[in-house]
Amino acid sequence: MPLFSGRGQGLDAIVHQSAPTTLELLLNDPPRFLAAMLYKYMRNKDHAPTGSVRCDDTIEHALVRVVCISDTHNVYLDSTQVPVGDILIHAGDITQSGTVSEVQDTLDWLGALPHRHKVVIAGNHDRCLAIPEECSALRWPQGVTYLSDAECQLYVGARTINIYGSPWTPKHGSGVFQYPRYPTNSAIQQWSSIPANTDILVTHGPPASHLDLGDYGCAALRDALWDAQPKLHVFGHIHAGRRVEVAKWDVAQRYYELVMARKSRWAGLFNMAFFLLRGLFVKGRKSIMVNAAVCGGVRDEDVRDAIVVDL
Fold it and tell me: Which residues of 83-92 are buried (b: 16+ CB within 10 A; e: fewer)?
């Protein structure tokens, strides 16, 4: 099976696969491997898969604690695994089969958590949320906001937080909320409506080249992020991609994405390295990206804690 490539695999195989080894990545595609290592260690060496992350460009404001989870698949975390915070975000696949009873059980669990604000989107497993008649039968607990290609404003102290959520992922298999894979007009149009003032973007799937195991994210979403540049982007879907990453909207990131998309090879890698070094001395706008998948492993046997971000 070629690494960094999702062609020819079923969706479950992609979502549940283990991350390839370092040697496999190096031998399969040296420029992409080196680009990923440079990007990780020069931009993201301090960001572990779990724990608390602080955004460093909003320190003049009171911090807003955002607790991030995704892909719980009928797993209900206890209070030690979901820290208290101002906003709880669930980035989809709240169930395994998407039945009304499964969704309702998850909503009841979310409603019992102590967070004042809870924002939920669907994922490709959450079938009943794609059927209006079944969705209307659900009881939504107080404090739970469901977003489907929609935005909301949450008020935390003196802060106003603008959140946009969308459940859609590129077509693969028979799940719900899917669109034809990029490059297609529908993929581009899907992400053209992200509001410019979005503070937190919640999508089920990752953008291409960011916490997506190489080839499984959406290129149209990646390109749309250059316009939106949210402070925080929360997603899941690719379970083994779970991690926190800081994206800096500069030339180095452009070259990184070109190399990862195979649109440039060694020349792109050298340019990326040069601009990464220069970027050490230049400030710019950043986004925190969080793949918050809770379930992991080949059979979802691993259960990971929530990831906390302080904005």
Answer: bebbbbbbbb
